[in-house]
Design a protein that fits this description.
Blueprint: E1 2-7, E2 35-36, E3 39-40, H1 43-64, E4 68-76, H2 78-87, E5 106-108, H3 112-120, E6 124-130, E7 134-138, E8 143-148, H4 155-159, E9 165-168, E10 183-190, E11 202-205, H5 208-216, E12 227-229, H6 235-242, E13 251-256
Antiparallel strand pairs: 1-8, 1-9, 2-3, 4-5, 4-6, 6-7, 7-8, 10-11, 10-13, 12-13
Helix pairs in contact: 1-3, 5-6
Length: 262
């Protein structure tokens, strides 16, 4: 897989502590009105940079030859959407209401700009992926990671942007821990409590990804990477695969199949 980190920060412009001091030091839309490198940040500049990111991601998707991607690891922020809808303004687009923002939903090429805008603007957290073939991960502070499984001589050209800095051979930190040597974790907490029960943990090798995924009913294109609550209605199925008994009267269970690595 060819993997890129795409950012607006010139990595040569850092102080002795490693802090970025270049003209693109702003990190979010709420910085509008602040002064950076002697210039007041405008919403127009934010949207111009956002558009550059989206164009770069879509160009790489077009190089993949895939018909669509899947929404994965979805965490919607409805409060943010309602807030900006009521306020109006350039960060809200009525097209957002036309998008089905749910786990494993197909995202077609024509909808990718809208979906990526929603992620960049904080309406939801999500990735766009096709297992083993492509991913778009949007991280904090306008860090974007794109992986494409189809190696062509045009990949680097598609990734380049006059407004952004592109680093190749840079895997996303939002990928799985260490597939295929990944260890999956099943944990639990008492019903009504937020804290994880540290005395309980089931560790499984990565091959269990394919055995467990059908229980959630996800498509074959879904990488099944994330943190998933175990549904008590699937008790018999998951007990058969894992070889453990689950007490859903006292506990709620979750499986973690991916995480952050520095």
């Amino acid at each position: 897989m060819i993997e890129y980190r795409i950012i607006k920060y010139d990595q040569s412009q850092r102080d002795e502590r490693g802090a970025y001091i270049g003209p693109s030091a702003w990190t979010c839309y709420s910085d509008v009105g602040e002064t950076f490198d002697g210039k007041v940040l405008t919403i127009e500049e934010c949207l111009r940079v956002e558009s550059a990111y989206i164009n770069a991601a879509i160009k790489l998707f077009e190089e993949s030859g895939l018909p669509h991607l899947r929404l994965t690891r979805v965490d919607g922020h409805e409060w943010q959407k309602e807030k900006l809808r009521s306020e109006g303004g350039p960060l809200y687009d009525p097209a957002f209401d036309e998008i089905e923002f749910a786990e494993d939903v197909i995202v077609l090429h024509k909808d990718m700009p809208t979906v990526l805008q929603m992620i960049f603007r904080g309406f939801a957290e999500a990735s766009l992926e096709w297992r083993d073939k492509f991913y778009i991960h949007i991280g904090w502070d306008f860090h974007m990671y794109v992986g494409i499984g189809k190696a062509t001589t045009d990949n680097d050209d598609a990734a380049r942007s006059r407004d952004l800095y592109v680093e190749s051979n840079y895997p996303s930190p939002y990928k799985a821990f260490n597939l295929p040597n990944n260890i999956l974790h099943i944990g639990r907490n008492k019903i009504g409590e937020e804290f994880v029960d540290d005395s309980y943990e089931i560790n499984l090798p990565a091959v269990y990804l394919e055995r467990l995924k059908p229980i959630w009913g996800f498509s074959d294109e879904h990488p099944f990477l994330g943190t998933w609550r175990v549904n008590r209605h699937c008790k018999d199925q998951i007990e058969k695969v894992v070889g453990q008994d689950f007490d859903f009267e006292a506990y709620e269970y979750f499986i973690q199949t991916a995480g952050w690595q520095d």
